[in-house]
Amino acid sequence: MLRAPAFLAAFLLALLPAAQSAEERLVVDDEAFEEMAIAAATVLHDKSKLVALTKLRTQLKRAHCELTLPEPRRDRLSPREVYRLVRSSTVAVATFYHCTKCKKWHFDSASGFVAADGVVSTSEHVVDFEDDGMKDGFLIVVDAKGRVFPVTEVLASNADSDTCLLRVAGLDLPPLPLSRTAEVGDTVFCLSHPDGNHWMFTAGMLSRFFINRDAASDGDKPPAKPKVAPSLYINVTAEYSPGSSGAPVVDECGNVVGQVQSITSSIEDQKGDDGKNVTTSFGMPLRSCVSAEEIAKLTRPAAKRAK
Asked: Are 202 and 60 within one domain?
């Protein structure tokens, strides 16, 4: 983990009173947040602390890892309390890279949450994606205070369920429990980074459970393998957008019931007078999340060590 240089940290704190305690209001300056993350990640890179995406991707075949997961919370919280709890355990999982067109470092953030000590859960497609325009890339994790940590290892992943667990060096944030008792109609919340708008908190309802057989797409590109092994997913009405992949969807106790995976909507076209298709209506957005059960499948209880 590394902080930004002092001058940039001071500048950010003047604009972004990031949480020094759970009670403080977080006012987000997205530009300053990204500048601070790029500066700190650059220092980590110069000190050879970052692990290349190419190496991390060689570890994506790991199916399971030993982890001690926290027990689910039982006390209901107010929305404010849920936000503060989840904010302390939610991160930006960002690609830090050089593109093929310039010499500048770039920062492209997705989302994730701490699932166990030093371990972040996110979507598999946050690690494995088309990178034709990337010269060299790395994964970093950034918390709400602007601290930057290197992703050093893929502990386990499953492309079919689009789940992934990452080892993050120096990460000291508390983990969020997984809950496998959610039901349709439950209130849910999501904290994510849609379209680079960091730390966006939304609320909605768990709408249904369903079996997913469709592979994740990479932006506008169709998936290489359109059908995958079936996984348990949920639909929610809590809003999010691209950039939210990997974000926690939690219940009123702050337990993770799902992880953001995709958003789709149907459209209806008709031919106009000029013979070209014209969109006449948009369907309801379908926000799909992998269930907490699928994340838990990546883990096995940590073995007890002989004393």
From this structure: no
Whether the Cβ atoms of residue 51 and residue 41 lie closer than 8 Å to each other: no
CB of 110 closer than 8 Å to CB of 246: yes
Measured CA angle at 22 (ends 17, 27), to 5 deg? 25
Q: Given CA atoms 109, 110, 115, 120 in this order, what sign does their dihedral have?
A: negative
* CA 235 remoteness from chain centre: 17
User: Same structural domain for residues 245 and 142?
Assistant: no
Q: How many domains does the chain have?
A: 2
Query: Both 139 and 72 in a single domain?
Result: yes
> Whole domain around residue 254: which residue ranges?
187-299
What is the per-residue pLDDT across 63-88, written as a single tens digit (0 to 9) for each?
999 999 999 999 999 999 999 999 99
Least Cα distance to 178 among 259, 261, 76, 84 occurs for 259
More confident residue, 8 or 74: 74
Any domain includes 306: no
Contact present, 8 and 38 (Cβ < 8 Å)? no
Q: What is the pLDDT of residue 25?
A: 85
pTM of the model: 0.86
Dihedral sign for Cα atoms in the order 252, 255, 258, 264: positive
The tens digit of pLDDT for each residue in 142-183 reads 999 999 999 999 999 999 999 999 999 999 999 999 999 999
Could you tell me if 14 and 150 lie in one domain? Answer: yes
Residues 94-117: tens digit of each pLDDT: 999 988 888 889 999 999 999 999
Query: Is the pLDDT reported for residue 4 higher than 60?
Result: no
One DSSP character per residue, 70-121 reads: PPPP-S---HHHHHHHHHTTEEEEEEEEEESS-SSEEEEEEEEEEEETTEEE
Which one, of 248, 227, 226, 228, lies nearest residue 236 by Cα?
248
